[in-house]
Amino acid sequence: MELDANTALTETELAEDVAVDNNAVDSDSEQLEEYDDELAEEVLMIDNVMLATLSAIEVITEKPLLEQAIVELDELIELIEVDMQGFTCEVEKRDQLLYLFYQQLGFAGDWRKWLELDSVLLHKVISSRNGVPLSLGTVFMYFAEHFEVDVTGIIFPGQFVLRFGSEQDGIYVDPADGQVLSRHKLQVLLRGIEGNHALLSDDDLLAANNEMHYLRLLQVLKAALIRDEHFSYALRCIDLILELEPDEPYEIRDRGFLLQQLDCKKLASEDFAYFIEQCPDDPITRVLKAQIDELAATDDTIH
Fold first, then answer.
1. Residues 212-227: pLDDT tens digits?
2. pLDDT tens digit string along 69-102?
3. In what helix (H) or strand (E) does residue 173 lie, and over which residues does it extend?
4. How far apart are CA 196 and CA 199, in angstroms?
5. Axis-axis angle for helices 49-61, 231-244 (nearest 10)
6. Do residues 126 and 73 make contact, with C-beta atoms less than 8 angstroms apart?
7. Neighbours of 294 (CB within 10 A)
8. What pTM was computed for the model?
9. Which of 44, 61, 170, 237 could form a disulfide bond with 165, CB atoms 3.0-4.6 angstroms apart?
């Protein structure tokens, strides 16, 4: 059962996806390496985060969604094109685009839906105009580039934030609703993630380059796919992440978890062993050692 990128997942699809027999595992494992290499190389050229991520979702879902998503984006831009004309001051352009994006077009984030896969998949967010802060911020930045509004993505701890202006006197905005985030609000957000003793520093407000932004989108998508138990699709997602970070131990650990779920025991053990070697002091290594022993006691599906 392949993930239909153009319709919401159903419980039946989920059940069929998780029920992987030995033959299906062998077939799926072969298919994981057969996606278009040319497209994968294009994704690695992160000139445009939106296009790169939509291309990556095509690879993961094996569904042609990029062209339709771009058509929808162009249609939305056309809806506000006239209202953006005549503004030359950077502040006026910023305020106008924020108003049009969140008020006229109705983009918004609903925290009750932040655990839903459709709030992460960019083509779904474009259609529904609802998503997590990271996906909404990505869509907004695509609009901002079109209208030449200067904005920077900030991978704030636990959340994605937009910054207008410089590090010294910039304005920070929550992509979920377009509201300005004062330093006090940023401090509150930080303490909610790191504890009451956390202090806001410049290191928490570093600008994300295109590669960092793209990787965070893939990591959030991976987490959503794992949460919904779409393990084969999450595995493809990790493959794309490892194209940029080939030796990242935590991604390889997660790949081991997914391979274990797909009954690929030998490959899972190898990934767990790599993580233990690279991160011997991580608390989870004890668990992974036990997993390796357990996997070794059973026959592997793939040899």
1. 999 999 999 999 999 9
2. 999 999 999 999 999 998 889 999 999 999 999 9
3. strand 171-173
4. 8
5. 140
6. yes
7. 12
8. 0.81
9. 170
